[in-house]
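S.,

Sequence below, as promised.
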Amino acid sequence: MKLQISIDGRLTPLDSADRGNIHEIAYGLYSVLYRGHSYEVRIQNSGGEWRATVGDRSFAIDIQDPRNGAGRVNATLAHMHQDVKAPMPGKVIRMLVREGDDVQAGQGLAVVEAMKMQNELKALRAGRVLRVAVKDGDTVGAGDVLLTLE
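The prediction came back faster than expected:
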């Protein structure tokens, strides 16, 4: 299936082969291999607009799903469930939220210790905690789901 991604108003095709070169590293952070180059891409919602940041450049983004008869998915990302994942192997020091909690963008969700450093994972957008998959003291691997936001 081919998708059209609009980056600053310019349509860019993305087929299933390209999607295999996009890996979620952490919540809102992706590693993208495109035409032989590797990019670190951060996705954020700011004031209702989705933006992708690559290095010091930021782009407005929109995804058009060909299965949608309207041709455009309004606020698609805003309505998706999003998994918050461990950025690297470590130990859950403290979960800062519970199932059913409402969270605001920038609010701390969990503290994970990795390589003797404590990392606070924060919400990139407002939402509600649907599921907490780990508890304090659990050992997690890179990419393990810690919690799911609605």
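The mean pLDDT is 77.

Coffee later?
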